[in-house]
Amino acid sequence: MNKNYEEYEMILSNYGYVHNLENAVDGLEYRIKEIPSPEVTRTYLATVNNACTYVDAMMNPVEDPDKAVYMLVGTGCTDKYTGEPVVFSFKKQPTDWCGAFVGTPTTLKNKLYKSTTKEKKSAEVEEKYSLDKSIIENALDSEPWGERLTNGRLMITSYRIGLEGKIINNIMKGIKQGYVESIDKTKILYNLGIVDKLNDYIYVVASVEKYINFEDDDCGNKSRTTKIKLVNGHIVHGQAELIKEGFDYQDIRNFPDPVFFFTNPSEAMFSSNIDVHCTHAFTHAVYERSERLPEGIEISEKKLAECIRNSIELSLKMQKVDYNFIKPMYSPRFDQICYLLPLYITGTLGEKPDLAIVVTDGKLFATFRTIIGLSEAYANARVLGYSENLWLKREWCFCTNKA
Questions:
Q1: The pTM of the whole model exceeds 0.85
Q2: How many angstroms separate the CA atoms of 387 and 191, rounded?
Q3: Residue 188 half-sphere exposure, CB side, CA atoms within 13 Å?
Q4: Where along the chain do its domains lie?
């Protein structure tokens, strides 16, 4: 063993158990860009006050070691990249401190943040999956809620995300429809729009959580906005449960109606008298979304573009004689109705489409947006109502890949 390793083992063993000695010393060398000196570290620890400090799980200093989660042991060296002090980090275990991770206070805090965020997201995914499983168990068996889409999501998950997206947009705009707030406004009760096995609507209570979202604007600058998301969703069955959840009895005497996406069904009907413009998104779809093509289909970008244009032209003609041919869907991102058209590559009208085309409607013309799988199209259309028509059929959209 290298002499430096042996000396650092003697130094660090005074603070806890080191299970990765060579990696720790090599990491210190990487940080300071020179061979680390055990004598520098030993002198620093012996002569500098607070050379060894204690912090909690969020890297906040604590004086009592018993209340600490991490112990930071100074090295006497500075990071050549940032100029910050480099430390050995030990984590408290039931019988001893265990280490050692090497880094600066900033890198340690970032590492903890990423770890905490990953655990939180994992917990949220598990919680959402638990809610979706509960919905499937309670819902009538007449719809394919447990089927998986080509993007891996469950049908019910895609439906719920679209519905909650509309509710979130309503909350952000102060539109109180489709949901009821708790007394302290930290929770909502909403109508899922799905009927259970007792022929009643399924109702869900979810917590309203605010978060900061960072986005790039058109000039490349970072914009900071406060957004909300719905978490900890669970099914409720009666007013007694809701009162315990913090809802006012007067507000829940009548449970909320389903969410409204429009006041008149004609508002969601696509006008066949307008053209569909293919903008930069068309090029994006042709060159970067070709991976969404069903397995076994090989086609040039030029031929794919031709198929998209031909399918749009066919759909506009069919819409003139069948108002249900172009299907509406809801886009939470834009808080507006978009539309679904069949994309035929290997077949034609009356046969199974290969994909679906998404367009947004304008007053003078519609705009091409992207292409998606048939199962995603079915799930998106279902948010606004029952999906089936001449080309969007259940047996064509799912391969019985249930959860």
A1: no
A2: 19
A3: 20
A4: 3-111, 120-252, 265-397
